[in-house]
Protein backbone atom coordinates (compact mmCIF):
# COMPACT_ATOMS: atom_id res chain seq x y z
CA UNK A 1 0.00 0.00 0.00
CA UNK A 2 1.31 3.46 -0.84
CA UNK A 3 2.03 5.25 2.40
CA UNK A 4 3.48 8.67 1.58
CA UNK A 5 2.05 11.53 -0.46
CA UNK A 6 4.86 10.98 -2.97
CA UNK A 7 4.01 7.28 -3.30
CA UNK A 8 0.29 8.01 -3.68
CA UNK A 9 0.90 10.72 -6.28
CA UNK A 10 3.15 8.41 -8.29
CA UNK A 11 0.55 5.61 -8.13
CA UNK A 12 -2.23 7.93 -9.34
CA UNK A 13 0.00 9.21 -12.16
CA UNK A 14 0.78 5.61 -13.21
CA UNK A 15 -2.92 4.70 -13.14
CA UNK A 16 -3.79 7.63 -15.39
CA UNK A 17 -0.85 7.00 -17.73
CA UNK A 18 -2.85 4.68 -19.97
CA UNK A 19 -5.20 5.68 -22.82
CA UNK A 20 -7.86 3.10 -21.92
CA UNK A 21 -7.93 4.22 -18.30
CA UNK A 22 -8.13 7.88 -19.31
CA UNK A 23 -11.06 6.98 -21.57
CA UNK A 24 -12.76 5.22 -18.63
CA UNK A 25 -12.28 8.27 -16.42
CA UNK A 26 -13.72 10.50 -19.14
CA UNK A 27 -16.74 8.19 -19.51
CA UNK A 28 -17.38 8.19 -15.77
CA UNK A 29 -17.16 11.96 -15.54
CA UNK A 30 -20.78 12.12 -16.72
CA UNK A 31 -21.89 9.54 -14.13
CA UNK A 32 -21.91 5.93 -13.14
CA UNK A 33 -21.71 3.18 -15.76
CA UNK A 34 -22.04 -0.58 -15.71
CA UNK A 35 -18.91 -2.58 -16.55
CA UNK A 36 -20.63 -3.90 -19.69
CA UNK A 37 -21.20 -0.34 -20.93
CA UNK A 38 -17.52 0.49 -20.43
CA UNK A 39 -16.55 -2.74 -22.19
CA UNK A 40 -18.78 -1.89 -25.16
CA UNK A 41 -17.19 1.54 -25.58
CA UNK A 42 -13.59 0.37 -25.23
CA UNK A 43 -14.03 -2.70 -27.47
CA UNK A 44 -11.58 -4.60 -25.27
CA UNK A 45 -11.87 -8.04 -23.73
CA UNK A 46 -13.85 -8.03 -20.48
CA UNK A 47 -10.79 -9.31 -18.59
CA UNK A 48 -8.72 -6.38 -19.91
CA UNK A 49 -11.40 -3.89 -18.90
CA UNK A 50 -11.55 -5.49 -15.45
CA UNK A 51 -7.78 -5.11 -15.08
CA UNK A 52 -7.98 -1.42 -16.00
CA UNK A 53 -10.85 -0.89 -13.56
CA UNK A 54 -8.91 -2.67 -10.82
CA UNK A 55 -5.94 -0.33 -11.29
CA UNK A 56 -8.21 2.74 -11.06
CA UNK A 57 -9.97 1.35 -7.99
CA UNK A 58 -6.69 0.47 -6.24
CA UNK A 59 -5.53 4.10 -6.31
CA UNK A 60 -8.97 5.37 -5.30
CA UNK A 61 -9.98 7.04 -8.56
CA UNK A 62 -13.08 4.87 -8.92
CA UNK A 63 -15.53 3.11 -6.64
CA UNK A 64 -17.92 0.27 -7.39
CA UNK A 65 -21.28 -0.97 -6.30
CA UNK A 66 -22.89 -4.26 -7.16
CA UNK A 67 -26.52 -4.47 -8.19
CA UNK A 68 -27.60 -8.04 -8.70
CA UNK A 69 -25.32 -9.55 -11.32
CA UNK A 70 -23.97 -6.20 -12.52
CA UNK A 71 -21.15 -4.02 -11.27
CA UNK A 72 -21.54 -0.25 -11.57
CA UNK A 73 -18.49 2.01 -11.52
CA UNK A 74 -18.28 5.71 -10.63
CA UNK A 75 -15.57 8.25 -9.94
CA UNK A 76 -14.65 8.50 -6.27
CA UNK A 77 -15.56 11.56 -4.28
CA UNK A 78 -12.02 12.12 -2.97
CA UNK A 79 -11.30 15.84 -3.55
CA UNK A 80 -7.56 15.26 -3.99
CA UNK A 81 -8.26 12.79 -6.79
CA UNK A 82 -10.91 15.05 -8.32
CA UNK A 83 -8.13 17.53 -9.11
CA UNK A 84 -6.25 14.82 -11.01
CA UNK A 85 -9.39 13.85 -12.90
CA UNK A 86 -10.31 17.42 -13.79
CA UNK A 87 -6.76 18.19 -14.94
CA UNK A 88 -6.62 15.07 -17.09
CA UNK A 89 -10.00 15.74 -18.67
CA UNK A 90 -9.13 19.36 -19.39
CA UNK A 91 -6.13 18.14 -21.37
CA UNK A 92 -8.41 15.80 -23.36
CA UNK A 93 -11.14 18.33 -24.10
CA UNK A 94 -10.48 18.43 -27.86
CA UNK A 95 -9.69 14.73 -28.30
CA UNK A 96 -11.83 13.09 -31.02
CA UNK A 97 -11.81 9.63 -29.44
CA UNK A 98 -13.04 11.04 -26.12
CA UNK A 99 -15.80 12.91 -27.98
CA UNK A 100 -16.80 9.73 -29.85
CA UNK A 101 -16.82 7.79 -26.57
CA UNK A 102 -19.06 10.45 -25.03
CA UNK A 103 -21.59 10.13 -27.88
CA UNK A 104 -21.63 6.33 -27.60
CA UNK A 105 -22.02 6.48 -23.82
CA UNK A 106 -25.06 8.73 -24.27
CA UNK A 107 -26.63 6.12 -26.58
CA UNK A 108 -25.75 3.28 -24.22
CA UNK A 109 -27.31 5.12 -21.28
CA UNK A 110 -30.57 5.41 -23.26
CA UNK A 111 -30.38 1.74 -24.18
CA UNK A 112 -29.98 0.67 -20.55
CA UNK A 113 -27.35 -1.45 -18.89
CA UNK A 114 -29.53 -4.46 -18.10
CA UNK A 115 -30.37 -5.28 -21.71
CA UNK A 116 -26.86 -4.48 -22.91
CA UNK A 117 -25.23 -6.72 -20.30
CA UNK A 118 -27.71 -9.52 -20.78
CA UNK A 119 -28.06 -9.50 -24.57
CA UNK A 120 -25.09 -7.68 -26.07
CA UNK A 121 -25.25 -4.47 -28.05
CA UNK A 122 -26.90 -5.54 -31.32
CA UNK A 123 -29.50 -7.77 -29.65
CA UNK A 124 -30.32 -5.06 -27.12
CA UNK A 125 -30.87 -2.62 -29.98
CA UNK A 126 -33.13 -5.11 -31.72
CA UNK A 127 -35.07 -5.77 -28.52
CA UNK A 128 -35.61 -2.05 -28.04
CA UNK A 129 -36.87 -1.65 -31.59
CA UNK A 130 -35.81 0.47 -34.48
CA UNK A 131 -36.22 3.89 -32.85
CA UNK A 132 -34.08 6.74 -34.14
CA UNK A 133 -31.54 7.53 -31.40
CA UNK A 134 -30.70 3.92 -30.66
CA UNK A 135 -30.27 3.03 -34.34
CA UNK A 136 -27.61 5.72 -34.82
CA UNK A 137 -25.18 3.47 -32.99
CA UNK A 138 -26.00 0.35 -35.02
CA UNK A 139 -22.63 0.44 -36.75
CA UNK A 140 -20.83 -0.72 -33.61
CA UNK A 141 -19.97 -4.39 -33.39
CA UNK A 142 -21.91 -6.72 -31.15
CA UNK A 143 -20.16 -8.49 -28.34
CA UNK A 144 -21.39 -10.52 -25.43
CA UNK A 145 -20.67 -9.04 -22.02
CA UNK A 146 -21.86 -11.83 -19.76
CA UNK A 147 -18.31 -12.42 -18.50
CA UNK A 148 -17.89 -8.71 -17.68
CA UNK A 149 -20.75 -8.62 -15.22
CA UNK A 150 -18.57 -9.28 -12.19
CA UNK A 151 -15.10 -7.88 -11.64
CA UNK A 152 -12.62 -8.84 -9.01
Write a structural description.
It is built from nine helices and three strands. It has one domain: Orthogonal Bundle (Arc Repressor Mutant, subunit A), CATH 1.10.10.10. It has 152 residues and is mostly helical. The C terminus is likely disordered. A hairpin with a 2-residue loop joins strand 2 and strand 3. It has a three-stranded antiparallel β-sheet with strand order 1-3-2. Helix 3 packs across helix 6 and helix 7 crosses helix 8.
SSE layout and pairing:
Elements: H1 5-16, H2 19-28, E1 33-34, H3 35-42, H4 46-58, E2 62-67, E3 70-75, H5 79-91, H6 96-111, H7 113-119, H8 121-128, H9 132-135
Antiparallel strand pairs: 1-3, 2-3
Q: What oligomeric state do these chains adopt?
A: single chain
Q: Into which percent range does the helicity of residues fall?
A: 55-70%
Secondary structure tally, helices? 9
How would you write the strand order of the largest sheet?
Answer: 1-3-2
Query: Helix/strand/pairing class, anyone?
Result: mainly alpha
* CATH-defined topology: Arc Repressor Mutant, subunit A
Number of strands: 3
- What sequence of helices (H) and strands (E) makes up the elements? HHEHHEEHHHHH
The CATH architecture can be given as Orthogonal Bundle
The CA-CA distance between the termini, in Å, is: 18 Å
CATH 4th-level superfamily: Winged helix-like DNA-binding domain superfamily/Winged helix DNA-binding domain
Amino acid sequence: MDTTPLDRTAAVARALANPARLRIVAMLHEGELCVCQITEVLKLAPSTVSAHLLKLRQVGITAERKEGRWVHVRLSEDPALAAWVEGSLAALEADRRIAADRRLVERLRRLGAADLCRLGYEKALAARGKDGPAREAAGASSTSHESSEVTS
